[in-house]
Amino acid sequence: MSGDDGDKKHSRVAVMGTVLFYLVAALAMVMANKWVLSTTETPLFFLFTQLVIAVVLFLGSHAIGIIKLPMDFSIPHMKAMAPLIALNVFGLSFSNFTLKYVDASFYQVARGLVLPFTVLTSYMFLRARPSLRILAACGIVSLGFFIGVFLDGTPISPVGVCFGVFSSAITATHSVVIKRTLDVVKGSALDLSWYGNALSAVGLFPLVVLSGEMPGVMRLLFGGAEAPAGSTFTPLATFLWGSAITGVFGFLMSIASLLSIKVTSPITHMVSSAVRGVLATFLGMWLFHDIITTGRASSIATILGGSIYYTWEKHLESQTPSSIKPSSSGKSEYGKSPYERVPVEDLEAGKTNGHTLHHHHKSEKPE
Prior knowledge:
By secondary structure, the protein is an all-alpha fold. The chain contains 14 helices and no strands. Mean pLDDT is 81; it is low at 258-263 and 322-367. InterPro entries: EmrE-like, Sugar_P_trans_dom, TPT_transporter. It is found in: Membrane.
């Protein structure tokens, strides 16, 4: 086998492995989150536990030399990180509350405005003027959201939808803040993920106390509750297993940048996003007995269609640099590069731990 053939085979294997990893990880995190949030009365403490597990894994990897982490917790450094940490804490909290109050299959609908909000905030803060086709894609996604919320006859939680909208807006703002905060850690997505997990855990614990969850935490840890009817897991076992699954997968997705596999393209991302959306719907039906009406299926399909159209248009724009006009800041109107991958996967996976940090850092190159 020639060297070129070997490289091509390695590239295909790398692409398949990368796509499969993110597909499995994203679905596992959403389903594990829903499994726990359906039974627990302490959603913020659950999130805190996830972050602590990720921090412990970071420190363990640092101790045995797999990764090297910075330990600069000086006041000036923390002040520079504060906006990102605040958005991280509230964004993760709202995302968990969304999943607690809505079905797993409806989660991507409730958070369906991530893409339109991201395009809007990029225009407001980065002066990234979207093309008419990008605006059309945002319109399709928004239409899918309104179909699912207002035209489907299935009862939904207004509280869950509100949390989903707030979570989407914070996710969009988060993407802008990440671009600026990366300078604080010299462009390292891994370091940013480490600080994000560690400082978010510290910032979240006071919210656990202030929200009144501590009595529920004490009952969970020391109440000795038995497994509910039809389940083989006690509430504590469900909580611990769910925390372990989401904490470990969140950590793995955070350090995935160490592999330096820049092999996924907009097309593979587009396909994997669509597959994730479909699988999340069917898994919700199978695991949690979600009811998928024609209206809900139409909503999900419309959101996925708009997201796919957005990704395709961004890919086409990246192939025609001459069509990208510089903004007043001197940069291209789409930011640092013509193709900027907006976190469409947040529609399925949510913004958990360092996952989003990793993807936004890599948005400077086509994936």
